[in-house]
């Protein structure tokens, strides 16, 4: 008995838990006890905790063995009973067939990849919806601009255009000053003759 208690303590120590982790003890009579809430819970309540983003760890009350994976699988199975839209039957058959470690790892990688792809698609759809909303509002903005006139150009563009015009006027003035003295001198010569 002392040896079992020592092993259980060693197992518990090997599973570092965050302070926010909800530890659920599973007893031999299949009852689940939430140690942080000091109450018995059911699978639906554990699922609700997970959906809220709380980390949950399920351990065997007598041995300290980690039963989280088995419990989460049980939650998925119980959820599938109520809804006919669970995992595809062929995928479930393949999961049963995948008894060796390599196949199990591949199936788990595949499921994770499929879920990640689903999340990417969902994010893309949300981004596109935002773009469509902007596009819908764009004609309204166009009508406002049409009714109020063109939007004033930014000041830095006006300044650069103004500088260019001033430079050109200065060039023209300096060019006209150079031409003017010649004309005056040629007129004077004509007038004296």
Number of domains: 2
Number of strands: 4
Structural class: alpha+beta
The profile of the biggest β sheet is: 4 strands, mixed
Kindly report the average pLDDT value: 75
Fraction of residues in helix: 55-70%
Strand arrangement, largest sheet?
Answer: 3-2-1-4
Specify the overall morphology.
Answer: elongated
The whole-angstrom Rg is 40 Å
* Poorly predicted tracts of residues: 1-18
Order of helices and strands: HEEEHEHHHH
End-to-end C-alpha gap: 139 Å
| Portion in beta strands | 5-15%
Enumerate how many helices there are, as a single number: 6
Offer a concise description of the structure.
This protein has two domains: 2-85, no CATH class; 87-150. The chain has helices at residues 2-14, 43-51, 68-82, 89-97, 101-148, 155-192, and strands at 22-26, 32-34, 39-41, 56-60.
What would you note in describing this structure?
By secondary structure, the chain is α+β, with helices and mostly antiparallel strands. It has 2 domains: 2-85, no CATH class; 87-150. Helices cover 68% and strands 8% of the residues. The chain is built from 6 helices and 4 strands. It has helices at 2-14, 43-51, 68-82, 89-97, 101-148, 155-192; strands at 22-26, 32-34, 39-41, 56-60. Strands 3-2-1-4 form a 4-stranded mixed sheet. Helix 2 packs across helix 3. Residues 1-18 have low confidence and may be disordered.
């Amino acid at each position: 008995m002392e040896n079992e208690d020592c092993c259980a303590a060693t197992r518990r120590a090997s599973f570092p838990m965050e302070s926010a982790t909800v530890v659920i003890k599973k007893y031999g009579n299949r009852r689940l006890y939430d140690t942080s809430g000091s109450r018995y819970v059911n699978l639906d309540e554990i699922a609700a905790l997970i959906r809220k983003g709380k980390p949950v760890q399920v351990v065997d009350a007598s041995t300290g063995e980690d039963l989280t994976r088995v419990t989460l699988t049980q939650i998925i199975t119980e959820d599938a009973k109520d809804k006919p839209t669970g995992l595809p039957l062929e995928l479930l058959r393949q999961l049963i067939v995948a008894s060796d470690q390599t196949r199990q790892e591949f199936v788990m990688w595949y499921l994770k990849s499929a879920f990640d792809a689903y999340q990417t698609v969902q994010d893309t759809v949300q981004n596109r919806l935002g773009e469509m909303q902007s596009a819908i509002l764009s004609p309204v903005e166009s009508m406002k601009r049409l009714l109020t006139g063109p939007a004033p150009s930014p000041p830095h563009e006006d300044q650069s255009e103004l500088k260019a015009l001033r430079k050109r006027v200065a060039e023209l003035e300096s060019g006209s000053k150079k031409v003017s003295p010649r004309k005056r001198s040629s007129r004077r010569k004509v007038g004296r003759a």
